Amino acid sequence: QEQLVESGGGLVQAGESLRLSCAASGRAFGSAYMAWFRQAPGKERDFVARISRSAATTYYADSVKGRFTISRDNAKNTVTLQMNDLKPEDTAVYYCAGGLGGSRFDLYTYRGQGTQVTVSS
């Protein structure tokens, strides 16, 4: 069973950067698409970014395109989300997920517990 643990969340001001990391344990990491989702208070969980198994392909939500970068290291079983030029609307709990790919959370079997990102104006 793959387990995912996120880290790197925190409180920053608008315009600043944060780097989220997700460490995976288990054998499935290299064969899974990896993604980040986020959920703001009172809102649905939204897709943020995903990366293919080989890291050759990435895909972003329009709201973060050009500001966020997803990457992975299959040798270290880690996936990261570099977030630049953060905005108050980026405030949410961020979840790491691994699975079949796509933009729906239910397509990702493996899910972390989440890390809080708060951006003040």
Quickly describe the structure.
With 121 residues, the protein is mostly beta strands. It is 0% helix and 51% strand.
Description:
The protein has strands at residues 3-7, 10-13, 18-25, 33-39, 45-51, 58-60, 68-73, 78-83, 92-99, 110-111, 115-120. It is mainly β. The strands form two sheets. Strands 2, 4, 5, 6, 9, 10 and 11 form a seven-stranded mixed sheet that branches. Strands 1-3-8-7 form a four-stranded antiparallel sheet, with no helix packed on it. A hairpin with a 5-residue loop joins strand 4 and strand 5 (45-51). The protein is globular and about 40 Å long. The model has no long low-confidence stretch (mean pLDDT 96).
Which SSEs are present, and which pair or pack?
Layout: E1 3-7, E2 10-13, E3 18-25, E4 33-39, E5 45-51, E6 58-60, E7 68-73, E8 78-83, E9 92-99, E10 110-111, E11 115-120
Parallel strand pairs: 2-11
Antiparallel strand pairs: 1-3, 3-8, 4-5, 4-9, 5-6, 7-8, 9-10, 9-11
Q: What is the helix/strand order?
A: EEEEEEEEEEE
The percent range for helix content is: under 10%
Please tell me what the overall shape is: globular
Number of helices: 0
What number is the mean pLDDT? 96
Distance between the termini: 40 Å
Radius of gyration: 13 Å
Attribute tags:
121 residues; mainly beta; 0% helix; 51% strand
